[in-house]
Amino acid sequence: MKLSTRSRYGTRLMLDMAQHYMKGPIQLGTIAKRQNIPVKYLEQIIIPLKKAQYVKSVRGNKGGHYLARPPEEITVGEIVAILEGGLRLTKCTDEPDACKRHEDCLTRAVWKQATDAMHEKLNSITLSDLLKTGDPCEYEMDTEDNPT
After folding, report:
1. Integer angstrom CA distances of residue 139 from 20, 45, 76, 112, 124
2. Residues 78 and 129 sit within 8 Å (Cβ to Cβ)
């Protein structure tokens, strides 16, 4: 399994806002420069985060975006779930009827266990935890095709 660029960049976006929490709104252009992520991409990523009420925005000359909750209350699992449309490896793990073989499937249990393990791990790491490591890349899940 591979996390999408959307989830990886979204986590970096949220982590950047966590690093500057309580310092006022931050413009996406500023975050884009610091994180080396195209601003157009951040503009797309921030929409579902705002809709889910993890980010708030202020309009105007001194406007920008900021975390709607403290960094210790936001987990990596929540961010990934918002940006991926859920945290699951296969559709059948939470929608058994999506597969006509769900009743006799010998592999469904392993996909369910793997999904549960992923949930547990990602939901146990907060933005605050990442800030405390001193190395935000410590938890980077995929660096093969895109450097952090």
Report:
1. 20, 20, 10, 23, 12
2. no
Query: Could you tell me which CATH class the domain 5-86+127-134 is placed in?
Result: mainly alpha
Distance CA 78, CA 114 (A): 17
Prediction pTM value = 0.81
pLDDT tens string 84-125: 888 777 777 777 777 777 777 888 888 889 888 988 999 999
The angle subtended at Cα 68 by Cα 65 and Cα 72, nearest 5°, is 120
Contact 141, 8 (CB under 8 A): yes
* Domain boundaries of the chain, sorted by first residue: 5-86+127-134
Burial class (CB in 10 A: 0-12, 13-18, 19+), 16: buried
Q: What is the DSSP letter of 134?
A: S
pLDDT band at 58 (very low <50, low <70, confident <90, very high): very high
Cβ contact 68:56 at 8 Å: yes
